[in-house]
Design brief:
- The complex is a heterotrimer of chains A (218), B (291) and C (275).
- Chain A has 218 residues and is an alpha/beta fold.
- Chain A is built from six helices and ten strands.
- Chain A has helices spanning 41-49, 91-102, 107-116, 132-144, 162-178, 189-195; strands at 3-12, 15-25, 30-34, 56-61, 64-65, 76-79, 150-154, 181-185, 198-203, 206-211.
- Chain A starts with a strand and ends in a 7-residue tail after the last strand.
- Chain B has 291 residues and is mostly helical.
- Chain B has 14 helices and two strands.
- Chain B has helices at residues 2-10, 13-36, 42-49, 66-69, 78-92, 98-105, 107-112, 117-150, 161-164, 173-178, 180-205, 212-236, 248-251, 263-287, and strands at 50-51, 54-55.
- Chain B is globular.
- Chain C has ten helices and two strands.
- A two-stranded antiparallel sheet of chain C has the order 1-2.
- The longest helix of chain C has 33 residues, at 110-142.
- Chain C starts with a helix and ends in a 9-residue tail after the last helix.
- Chain B binds chain C through residues 17, 21, 63, 75-78, 81-82, 85-86, 89, 93, 97, 100-101, 104-105, 162-163, 165, 211-214, 216-217, 220-221, 224-225, 227-228, 231-232, 235-236, 255, 257-258, and chain C through 31, 35, 38-39, 65-73, 75-76, 78-79, 82-83, 86, 89-90, 201-203, 205-206, 209-210, 213-214, 217-218, 274-275.
Chain lengths: 218, 291, 275
């Protein structure tokens, strides 16, 4: 699913958070957003997810404009900022609640995904008792469990230990192999350079540059 | 630390919102009396109630006075009803929720690693109290200034207490006939004190409840419950004809709205509320684990 | 189908799990019932269920500002409405800032979420009243009180109607005692829900509180709280509030709020907002 930003500007209150952005994110590619805190990476992801709409310009998914032709991308998994779940439910129950909306997957798939993110032992623990790292893993699980065509991961390695970071790398590569379009942001440039097919640098809501980390290998 | 907290409390959008809300009703109360008593033409009003330059004594006229028209003397307009009812909300809106928010977003961790909890809690308490107090003081000042520009001052007549609703034995009743402006000042200060107390009560509630909406509105709902309970208690358990006002939003009024204001009862309630609020802040705040 | 999934979730999270708030309201009804019962028994009056409800939902007589007669707020009436509005205030904004963000994009449409919340608001208000009525019904049955919804002029001892009373021997006030208070809470709840999204939950509650307080002070068809006061019905006093007009106004307000909220929510920026 190709994602196209066409002259997109987003103003929130008095701040221009995204300023005249023109990018094409090809399908079946890992695209990395690189930038300092507050540069606009999360806002771009929110625009792709359809959670916010541009003030001017358009964001389209496979030719369909968000906010006009479609409200949300038809198949998307999102992990933005601090993922929110219900404190009174276990990790497994939280995922079941979300999976029930589209009813595309069964409990076996949920357990499989929890295993992938390393939460099998804690899946029956209440969410309020999860550590920050466990919450992050659950957020990643929620994003990938329905095998969406677009996967958005905002700083997925936050709060994760070394094994967690390796887990994220494996997941991102596996999602690409599956055919998904992966968009991720990471403060660790090395991880982005290792995983991403294309890295887009963002500064003050504008595109500051782009490069292909693996171009020299071709 | 106190300076920073005060700055955040007073120079903020929520303070302005709360101030606008309370000032709106204070101004509406003034406008009601100015319209009702023909105050657009103060000279004509003055001519009607004075003769040969001196005050024309009549049981009716003492009512047409600044002392009856200011917010604390108003017993007629819708605006005063809403103003007093919303005091618990207006005073909590500016800053009473700040501890809850700082704890939730993790800002508290930054604070406790840099200063003692006692200093932080003291600064916070001072800021919360000040913001709540100012939100009540400023509308009063505006109301009194507006009224005094249009309605003349005349001394009420003690024999007309049925209309003045100042009964002998009511808190500070003697002052209105000897030092009326002192009477007005004391009630304004009592209201300002309770503006601060209601803000502190909301702040104290945030140590028990983790929901910002509940934190802001709990004292308001509790005050309604007190208002209802008061009627219940008096109708069932108190046979004496003399009944004292227990509901702060009623004893803050300089007139006896329903029951009589007794200074000792007011003092007791003030001490209890202040004690609860400050006690909770320092005891629970000192023990609260910061995650 | 997704709408029903959302609704099922809202009913579970927003109603079943909030049982403590229902208990709180039931306590209020119990206290009010005992108070009225004590007063009635002290003078040997036997009130009907309708008369008990009149004492709770009747409100206060039309207030005419008069020197020497300050306004006294109808605390029980205010508490009943404001408690329900307080309990239903925070659910929707909390969901929108939290778990709801995960569910909204999965649903494929924003309005599914919005209309589910509108439905929840209405059902939650109905549930609070159902609990109150059940409570009253049970207390009446236990005390051998007549289940009739008719009132007699005896009830005016407890809720004075003021001047201009329409003479009657017995009057069935089913719509004034059951439907209108419920509709008032529903319509103010919908207004609150919409304002929570458009502005802030705090402002929404202040608006609800202000409308109810103003309604108790001033009789006006523009202040919807008036329709919730049975003592101001045009069947009780001349120049009172007309029930049919009230029903139409409140349904209209609810529909307008739902529609306005939908229009606003279609383009609403779903962000993790600070409180």
């Amino acid at each position: 699913m190709a994602i196209i930003f066409k002259e997109v500007t987003k103003v929130i209150g008095n701040s221009v958070v995204i300023d005249n952005v023109d990018i094409i994110i090809p399908s079946n590619q890992i695209t990395g957003f690189k930038g300092i805190n507050g540069s606009g990476k999360t806002m771009l992801m929110r625009l792709i997810a359809g959670l916010i709409y541009p003030t001017t310009g358009t964001v389209s998914i496979d030719g369909k404009v968000l906010g006009k032709d479609i409200t949300f991308p038809p198949s998307i998994g999102v992990m933005l900022e601090n993922p929110a779940f219900l404190n009174g439910y276990t990790g497994y129950e939280n995922l079941c609640l979300l999976a029930d909306i589209k009813s595309e997957i069964d409990s076996d798939r949920i357990k499989e995904v929890l295993n992938i993110v390393g939460l099998t032992e804690n899946m029956n623990k209440k969410y309020r008792k999860y550590s920050l790292g466990m919450k992050q893993r659950l957020g990643i699980a929620a994003a990938i469990m329905e095998k969406p065509d677009i996967v958005l991961l905002d700083e997925p390695t936050n709060s994760l230990d070394e094994s967690g970071v390796e887990m994220v790398k494996k997941i991102v590569k596996a999602e690409k192999e599956r055919g998904a379009t992966v968009v991720m942001s990471c403060h660790d440039g090395e991880i982005l350079d290792e995983l991403a097919d294309e890295v887009i640098e963002i500064k003050n809501g504008k595109i500051a540059g782009r490069y292909f980390p693996h171009e020299s290998e071709r | 630390m106190i300076r920073n907290e005060l700055k955040r409390a007073v120079f903020s959008r929520t303070f302005l919102l709360a101030l606008a809300l309370m000032t709106l009703f204070a101004v509406l109360s003034a406008v009601f009396y100015i319209e009702e008593w023909g105050g657009y033409n103060p000279n004509a009003l003055n001519d009607a109630i004075s003769e040969d330059g001196s005050y024309r004594f009549s049981p009716q006229f003492p009512l047409y006075s600044l002392l009856s028209a200011w917010l604390g003397g108003d017993t007629l307009s819708l605006a005063y009803t809403v103003f007093f009812a919303l005091i618990p909300i207006g005073s909590a809106l500016p800053y009473a929720w700040s501890y809850h928010t700082e704890r939730k977003c993790g800002y508290l961790k930054n604070i406790v690693s840099r200063t003692t909890r006692a200093k932080y809690l003291t600064a916070k308490t001072a800021a919360v109290f000040t913001s709540g107090a100012l939100v009540i003081l400023i509308p009063y000042i505006i109301n009194i200034l507006l009224i005094s520009a249009y309605i003349p001052y005349n001394m009420p007549w003690a024999g007309f207490n049925l209309y003045n609703r100042i009964y002998f034995g009511t808190m500070w009743a003697d002052l209105i006939f000897t030092h009326p402006f002192l009477h007005m000042f004391l009630f304004v200060m009592l209201n300002v004190l309770y503006g601060g107390i209601y803000a502190l009560l909301s702040y104290a509630v945030s140590f028990y409840i983790k929901n910002i909406v509940a934190v802001i509105f709990a004292p308001f709902v509790a005050t309604l419950a007190v208002g209802y309970s008061e009627n219940l208690i008096y109708s069932r358990y108190v046979a004496t004809p003399v009944r004292f006002e227990l509901d702060p939003t009623k004893f803050l009024h300089s007139r006896s709205v329903q029951y009589m204001q007794n200074p000792w009862v007011v003092l007791l309630i003030t001490v209890l509320l202040l004690g609860f609020a400050v006690g909770t802040v320092y005891i629970k705040g000192g023990k609260h684990e910061v995650f | 189908m997704k709408y029903f999934k959302f609704l099922r979730f809202d009913l579970r999270e927003g109603i079943l799990k909030k049982y403590k708030s229902y208990l709180a309201l039931a306590c209020l009804i119990l206290i009010a019932f005992l108070d009225i019962q004590t007063k009635a028994e002290a003078v040997g009056n036997k009130l009907t269920l309708g008369e008990y409800m009149f004492c709770i939902y009747g409100g206060i007589k039309r207030y005419v500002p008069t020197m020497g007669d300050p306004f006294k707020a109808p605390y029980l009436w205010l508490l009943n409405h404001l408690l329900i509005l307080y309990f239903t205030l925070n659910y929707t904004p909390t969901d929108l800032n939290g778990f709801g963000q995960q569910t909204i994009y999965r649903s494929g449409g924003r309005l599914t979420w919005w209309f589910s919340k509108c439905s929840w608001q209405i059902i939650a208000s109905v549930m609070y009243y159902a609990v109150s009525w059940l409570c009253l019904g049970a207390l009446s049955a236990l005390n051998g009180i007549s289940p009739s919804l008719e009132i007699t002029p005896t009830v005016f001892i407890y809720v004075p109607p003021g001047s201009g009373v329409v003479p009657f021997d017995r009057l069935n006030l089913a719509s004034e005692l059951l439907l209108l208070p419920l509709l008032t809470t529903v319509s103010l709840g919908m207004l609150q829900l919409t304002l929570s999204i458009i502005i802030k939950p705090q402002v929404a509650y202040i608006a609800s509180a202000a409308i109810l307080i103003m309604s108790s002070h001033t009789q006006s068809p523009l202040l919807l709280g008036n329709y919730a006061m049975a003592v101001r019905s045009d069947r009780i006093i001349t120049e009172g509030m007309n029930a049919s007009a009230g029903i139409v106004s409140m349904i209209a307000l609810s529909v307008i709020c739902a529609a306005l909220g939908a229009l606003k929510f279609r383009k609403y920026d779903i962000l993790c907002k600070e409180e």
